[in-house]
Write a structure and sequence with these properties.
The chain has 497 residues and is of the alpha/beta class. Helices cover 46% and strands 17% of the residues. Helix 16 (397-407) runs antiparallel to helix 17. The radius of gyration is 27 Å and the shape is elongated.
Length: 497
């Protein structure tokens, strides 16, 4: 059957046999033949359409070239479906022997079964994700990996920020802070484990099974990135997949419009400490990436970032950007910071300040001629300083308070709130280290910081209560959202009256 494709395979084989790497090259091109086989059988394209594409590209065309031409020529409109098909073809091409021809009759039944299993999962489902979770057991590992990639892409295209796959639970996504179940199927322990390890290498899977926790960055392409956390809980495996935006948004686009002069001034310094804080899911990483991009665009410095894991890739623009990930590139935040000081950096970016050694090293770096930007999990700007200082033992308190009073530039605390438009809007609180703030830090009188912030508007400071009240006045958030995020009694009365 399909004699013309058998001829293509033979022509490729004869052409490649003269090369020293003939077997490897032919194995690479076998995936094109598998794509032709699968696409024709599934009716994605006709035999004639595929033949014309292959002939136009020549005998050395790669799988990606053929797939792209099918899209560019308007032959295939379902890009996601073609991606799934190409993933399966690639896996089959890697496994097949160099001389193996996908169109030989004895392979038909095995191929037909594989394709049927693949598309029973990848076909559109009632929940709109294109994933039929009840059919997971029918998939081999290659097909499951391709289907999970497609699920992530579909989830991202629907605008969700997170995908959760957990044992004993229905799969669900988070969009604009709201959870939505995407299937009525409850994942079993085996299904959840297979789903969450389908995209791991053998080494990564071993680490996860040994540690029972694993954080890593997943890149499906240069522009499709996800931050993944895997864990084991009482029922079994669970995975949380955070979608990383394809492009870095500016500070204005994030919603800092009224505070741009203050933020840009903080980023204009060449030494000192800037802290980005907020609860989990408040957009700290997104803000941090935007700040790095601003520095990368407006300065000509050496920026070193230490992240766990690397989420947003920052290509060099005006600056040279060296991004390091805890685990693959360095043992810990502390060791990376210690090493960074010997790498001639101008700016050091720390994904999270979480322990005494890292905080101490960050403060030291900010005192020795470096701009240091880091994130912390806190509930407001003033408690950020309390948490920053309280990790140190009593014997070091006087010294550390003096160091922070001298090196701190500012604290940006943020939250994301549901807006009246149905999406999210940013609310922030900014503390700038002026003379009054510096004195309060040095003397250990953090309780006076809020009053100083309220009177420090000229220095660019603002309180969360006032910012949220302003968002309510502008009708950007509802009254219920405003009341839930304001503690000031006077402002609460104004909203309810």
């Amino acid at each position: 059957m399909d004699s013309e494709f058998t001829a293509i395979a033979l022509n490729r084989k004869n052409a490649l046999q003269t090369s020293s790497n003939a077997a490897a090259a032919l194995a690479t091109h076998n995936d094109v033949l598998w794509l032709a086989k699968l696409g024709i059988e599934q009716g994605v394209f006709t035999r004639e359409q595929c033949r014309q594409v292959c002939q136009s590209l020549g005998p050395n065309a790669e799988l990606a070239d053929v797939a792209q031409r099918l899209i560019d020529d308007g032959i295939v409109e379902d890009v996601s479906g073609l991606e799934v098909l190409a993933g399966l073809a690639f896996a089959k091409g890697q496994k097949s022997a160099p001389s193996e021809n996908p169109f030989e009759p004895d392979l038909d039944s095995e191929l037909a079964a594989a394709v049927e299993r693949q598309f029973s999962v990848a076909a559109p489902s009632d929940d709109g994700t294109g994933f039929a979770f009840a059919n997971i057991g029918a998939l081999d590992d290659d097909a499951l990996g391709a289907a999970v990639r497609d699920l992530l892409r579909r989830t991202a295209r629907q605008g969700a920020s997170d995908l959760h796959l957990s044992t004993g639970s229905r799969p669900f996504t988070r969009k604009n802070r709201v959870l939505s179940f995407i299937s009525e199927h409850t994942l079993t322990e085996t299904e959840a484990m297979r789903l969450n390890t389908a995209l791991l290498s053998a080494g990564q899977k071993q680490i996860f099974l040994e540690r029972k926790d694993y954080d890593y960055a997943l890149a499906l392409s240069a522009t499709e990135r996800y931050r993944v956390n895997l864990m084991i809980h009482k029922n079994g495996a669970a995975g949380a997949y955070r979608m990383v935006p394809e492009t870095v948004r500016s500070l204005e686009e994030l919603g800092f419009t009224a505070h741009i002069p203050t933020l840009k001034k903080l980023l204009s310094y060449h030494n000192g400490l800037v802290l980005i804080t907020g609860p989990v899911g408040s957009g700290k990483t997104t803000t941090l990436a935007s700040m790095v991009d601003h520095l990368n665009t407006t300065r000509t410095d050496h920026i070193i970032t230490v992240e766990d894991p690397i989420e947003v890739v920052q290509p060099a623009k005006g600056c040279n950007v060296s991004q390091r990930e805890v685990g693959p590139h360095t043992k810990s935040f502390f060791t990376a910071l210690k090493g960074a000081l010997r790498e001639d950096p101008d700016v050091i970016v720390i994904g999270e300040l979480r322990d005494l050694e890292t905080i101490e090293m960050a403060i030291t770096a900010s005192e020795t001629g470096h701009l240091v930007i880091g994130t912390m999990h806190t509930s407001d700007a003033t408690t950020t300083l309390t948490r920053l200082l309280d990790v140190f033992p009593p014997s070091q308190q006087t010294q550390i308070r003096a160091s922070v009073a001298a090196s701190l530039l500012g604290v940006v605390f943020q939250r994301v709130l549901p807006s009246t438009r149905g999406d999210l809007t940013l609310a922030c609180e900014i503390l700038i280290n002026n003379t009054a703030v510096s004195s309060l830090i040095r003397e250990g009188k953090s309780q006076g910081l809020r009053n100083t912030m309220e009177t420090g508007v000229r220095d660019g400071m603002c309180l969360m209560d006032n910012v949220v009240f302003g968002l309510w006045q502008e009708r950007k958030i509802s009254r219920e959202t405003a009341l839930a995020n304001i503690s000031n009694r006077v402002l609460r009365v104004k909203i309810t009256s």
